[in-house]
């Protein structure tokens, strides 16, 4: 149940952002929000799906991951396409020489610090790679104009969000990663497709499950059904009111009170009849 709650809370955090940007094109394999898979209803055609957080990620870490993905998308991808690249707020801010580069590295460091809030923190390899991505992003961005384009292409925040997904997937996925579903796929073609944001339906990236845009309402209904079931299990047995218990202990309202009440009424009736005879 805790896993379901964590998944629902984290994906609710992402839901409004995904809905806001659902008309945006998929931007490569590390796109934090969207991917392309083959449409089972239209063979040979692709459809865009949401990349949501799976239930096996605990609630705390799922919320951290959701926050990192949301921030990375805003900083790296949320605005517009130019020269085949997606631009976010960091790229726009980076146009300002000097000041923009400093603000950009501070924003990237804030995403990195957010990643460190997962249970147990980041492992040393992931932590080093994230810092290296931030340094590369900053140095490249110092070059006027061409550096800004390279910075928009590199996307340090999106890369670091993907690194966090890999760590959480490795840590929490039950039984490790199962590659049986992709055993028949061409390895080189698979890698090329994934870089473009195209995935096999049974081969999602780490710490991710695919969800259609019309599945959100059903997911919410399922969550509410499970919540109601849990509430019914936890509901205590109803206790009798104190007045009712006192009445039962004193015999009031039961067969004894009716019997004694009936005898008293019979005695009163007999006394009245005897008085009438004497008159």
From TrEMBL:
Q: Pfam families recorded for this chain?
A: DUF4112
Keywords on record: Membrane, Transmembrane, Transmembrane helix
Residues covered by region (Disordered): 172-211, 227-279
Query: Which InterPro entries does this UniProt record tie to the protein?
Result: DUF4112 (IPR025187)
Listed Basic and acidic residues bias regions? 172-191, 227-240
Return the Polar residues bias intervals. 263-279
Superkingdom per UniProt: Eukaryota
Q: Which residues cross the membrane?
A: 87-110, 130-150
Q: Which residues form a coiled coil?
A: none
Name of the protein described by the UniProt record: PH domain-containing protein
């Amino acid at each position: 149940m805790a896993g379901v709650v964590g998944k629902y809370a984290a994906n609710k955090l992402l839901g409004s952002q995904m809905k806001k940007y659902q008309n945006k094109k998929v931007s490569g394999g590390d796109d934090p929000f969207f991917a392309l898979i083959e449409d089972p209803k239209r063979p040979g055609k692709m459809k865009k799906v949401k990349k949501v957080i799976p239930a096996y990620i605990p609630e705390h870490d799922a919320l951290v991951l959701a926050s990192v993905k949301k921030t990375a998308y805003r900083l790296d991808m949320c605005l517009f396409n130019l020269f085949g690249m997606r631009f976010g707020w960091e790229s726009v801010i980076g146009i300002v020489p000097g000041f923009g580069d400093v603000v950009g590295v501070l924003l990237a460091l804030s995403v990195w610090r957010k990643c460190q809030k997962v249970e147990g923190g980041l492992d040393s390899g992931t932590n080093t790679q994230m810092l290296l991505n931030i340094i590369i992003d900053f140095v490249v961005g110092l070059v006027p104009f061409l550096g800004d384009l390279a910075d928009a292409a590199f996307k340090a925040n999106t890369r670091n969000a993907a690194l966090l997904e890999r760590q959480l997937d490795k840590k929490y996925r039950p039984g490790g990663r199962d590659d049986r579903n992709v055993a028949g796929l061409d390895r080189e073609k698979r890698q090329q497709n994934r870089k473009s944001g195209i995935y096999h339906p049974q081969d999602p990236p780490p710490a991710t499950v695919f969800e259609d845009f019309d599945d959100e309402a059903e997911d919410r209904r399922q969550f509410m059904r499970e919540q109601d079931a849990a509430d019914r299990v936890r509901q205590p047995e109803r206790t009798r009111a104190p007045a009712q218990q006192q009445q039962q202990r004193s015999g009031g309202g039961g067969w004894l009170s009716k019997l004694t009440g009936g005898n008293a009424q019979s005695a009163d009736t007999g006394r009245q009849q005897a008085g009438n005879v004497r008159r």
